[in-house]
Amino acid sequence: MKEELKVKKIKDGTVIDHIKAGLGKKVLDILGIGDGFSNTTALLMNVPSEKIGRKDIVKIENKTLKKEEVDKIALIAPNATWNVIKDFKVVRKSRIEIPDMLEGILKCPNPKCITNSNEPIKPNFIIEEKEPVRLRCNYCERLFDLKDVL
Ligand SMILES: [Zn+2]
Fold this sequence. Notes:
Elements lengths: L12 E8 L3 H7 L10 E9 L3 E9 L5 H10 L4 E6 L2 E7 L5 E3 L20 E7 L2 E5 L5 E3 H4 L1
Antiparallel strand pairs: 1-3, 1-4, 2-3, 4-5, 6-7, 7-8, 8-9
C-alpha cells in the first residue's frame, strides 16, 4: 500500500516527515502551534510508511524553522525529515539529528541553578545520552531526563 491520504501541497513552508506515529502533536506543541497561530497547518497521523511502519507528518505553510526549533524537535522526534518548500518544490531536505549541545532553548529545572537567577546567563545543556535523551546542565551539572526539561 503506497496510497497516502492526500493533503493539498503547500507552496512555501515546512514539512516535517517521518515523525514516529503519535508524536506529531508533540512536535506542534514544541513549535508553539496552537491557539493564536494563524498559518495553515496540517497534522497527518498514522500514515503508512515503508521505513517506520506508521508515521506522522506535519505541514506548516509560510513557516521556516530556526535552528533552535529543529534541535528541540530532534529531542522528541529524532530521525524525522525536515523539508523546506519553496514554490511547491522541496529545496532542502535533511534528517533531524539530536545535537550534542543545546544552548538557550530549554530552561534548567533546578531552581537554584545560576541560569534561573537574575544573571544574564543562557542555559546550556550537554546531551549525554540520546536513547532515551538525558541532558546535563553545564552550570549546575545536574542530569535530567527529557520530560524534566520540556
Ligand atoms: Zn542548571
